[in-house]
């Protein structure tokens, strides 16, 4: 078995053949069948297989782009379950972007945040308030609702507002660490939710527990985005930007500063890392990604209320990061996608299948153990199994490899160049000017 793995790892043509066969079989199955969860999962698994190939990063990005932009939308469009597939893929993209944002705070900087969904809510309410007539209730004039064409601008406005509140959160908690930081951020998330729930008096800004409805969908050159397959491409575009940004941050100077703070704050300060600015940047950047997806969520659902931004959502996003592998970008992507697909499709379809067998009399399941009630139990058991057998995450973080020989050659070349240059001695009896 080990020899087979080594042979596959060294043979890129064999890897390409296996990947092409998997994509063809799964794509044709999804396209020709009315609905097949297994075939759809195999099609998505081709992206995971692509990650483990020995292709260059450029080739992986090109193949992944073709899969995500062309093959997956085309394959899922063949049957009546098209919008169902696209809904799962869109929700997965939204949660992946939020998990990558939280990974900056938790995985890179080591700051435990249990109120991350608050930034998601800030982005959603930023667009929801001004894209409906709700803004007319506390602002003079009759300029609202704004048209759906402003959605593209509000993606950046929502990210900016979330980043601003992320910095405001970071200021009072700079001296707090560990469990106390988790308590403070948990309180911040609950405070934001309660404020949105009660901010209808004395001035009605958020419409309280009733929520905001009739939010304008995105509009581009007169074309409204109202279906999941249309939002899918919006989410993919933002997600590509988020992944590119996170990868650039990871190995940049600020990324190394985040990791230094995570390992030892005192040592990082002694090496010249500005502790306050580094932490605030982590909170701001991570929050901005969540705020951008909050705008997309509000436009997609066309209705938001405080019940969508509870503590359970923050815990779920944190579980995605921990399960995937803290600090690992591909691991967080896999963890977020896995949990989203489990919740939205796999466990739901499994529960529906057991219900049908019960109604047909094939099996008899007691009411107390009905699939609808046991769904969360099964989900929790799966998470425990992953945590036991993969304690470092599904794809653990890998530090960048350093070529020690190259560094030694550079050091030796510099030392020889400095020793070869002899100092110029002043002439005897003269004055050096």
Automatic annotation (TrEMBL):
Q: Which UniProt keywords apply?
A: Cell membrane, Membrane, Transmembrane, Transmembrane helix
> What is the topology of this protein in the membrane according to its UniProt annotation?
Multi-pass membrane protein
Secretion signal span = none
| Compositionally skewed regions (Low complexity) per UniProt | 413-423
List the residue ranges of the region (Disordered).
413-433
- CDD domains per UniProt: TM_PBP1_LivM_like
Work out whether the entry's keyword set contains Membrane. Answer: yes
Query: What is the top-level taxon of the source organism?
Result: Bacteria
Membrane-spanning ranges: 37-54, 61-82, 88-106, 111-130, 150-171, 178-196, 231-249, 280-303, 315-341, 353-371, 377-397
A Pfam family cross-referenced in the UniProt record is: BPD_transp_2
Q: Which locations, inside or outside the cell, does it occupy?
A: Cell membrane
What is the protein named?
Answer: Branched-chain amino acid ABC transporter permease
Recorded source organism is: Paenibacillus violae
């Amino acid at each position: 078995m080990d020899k087979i793995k080594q042979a596959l790892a060294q043979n890129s043509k064999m890897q390409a053949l296996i990947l092409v066969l998997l994509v063809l079989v799964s794509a044709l199955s999804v396209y020709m069948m009315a609905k097949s969860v297994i075939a759809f999962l195999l099609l998505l698994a081709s992206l995971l297989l692509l990650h483990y190939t020995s292709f260059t990063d450029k080739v992986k990005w090109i193949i992944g782009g073709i899969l995500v932009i062309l093959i997956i939308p085309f394959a899922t469009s063949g049957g009546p379950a098209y919008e169902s597939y696209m809904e799962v893929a869109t929700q997965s993209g939204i949660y992946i972007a939020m998990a990558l944002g939280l990974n900056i705070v938790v995985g890179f900087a080591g700051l435990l945040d249990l109120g991350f969904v608050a930034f998601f809510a800030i982005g959603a309410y930023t667009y929801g308030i001004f894209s409906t007539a709700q803004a007319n209730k506390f602002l003079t004039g009759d300029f609202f609702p704004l048209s759906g064409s402003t959605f593209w601008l509000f993606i950046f406005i929502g990210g900016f507002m979330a980043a601003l509140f992320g910095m405001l959160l970071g200021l009072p908690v700079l001296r707090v660490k560990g469990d106390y930081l988790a308590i403070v951020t948990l309180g911040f998330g609950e405070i934001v939710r309660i404020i949105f729930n009660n901010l209808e008096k004395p001035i009605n800004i958020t419409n309280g527990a009733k929520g905001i409805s009739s939010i304008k969908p995105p509009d581009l050159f007169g074309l409204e985005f109202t279906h999941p397959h249309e939002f899918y491409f919006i989410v993919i575009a933002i997600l590509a930007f988020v992944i590119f940004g996170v990868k650039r941050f990871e190995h940049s100077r600020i990324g190394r500063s985040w990791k230094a703070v995570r390992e030892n704050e005192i040592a990082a300060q002694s090496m010249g890392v500005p502790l306050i600015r580094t932490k605030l940047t982590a909170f701001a950047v991570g929050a901005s990604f969540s705020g951008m997806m909050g705008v997309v969520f509000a436009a997609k659902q066309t209705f938001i209320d405080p019940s969508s931004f509870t503590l359970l959502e923050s815990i779920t996003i944190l579980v995605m990061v921990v399960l995937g592998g803290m600090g690992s970008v591909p691991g967080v992507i896999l963890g977020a996608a896995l949990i989203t697909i489990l919740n939205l499709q796999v466990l739901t379809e499994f529960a529906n299948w057991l219900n049908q067998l019960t109604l047909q009399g094939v099996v008899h399941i007691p009411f107390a153990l009905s699939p609808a009630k046991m769904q969360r139990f099964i989900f929790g058991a799966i998470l425990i199994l992953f945590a036991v057998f993969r304690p470092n995450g599904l794809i653990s973080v890998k530090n960048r490899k350093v070529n020690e020989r190259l560094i030694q050659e550079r050091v030796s070349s510099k030392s020889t160049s400095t020793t070869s240059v002899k100092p110029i001695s002043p002439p005897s009896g003269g004055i050096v000017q």
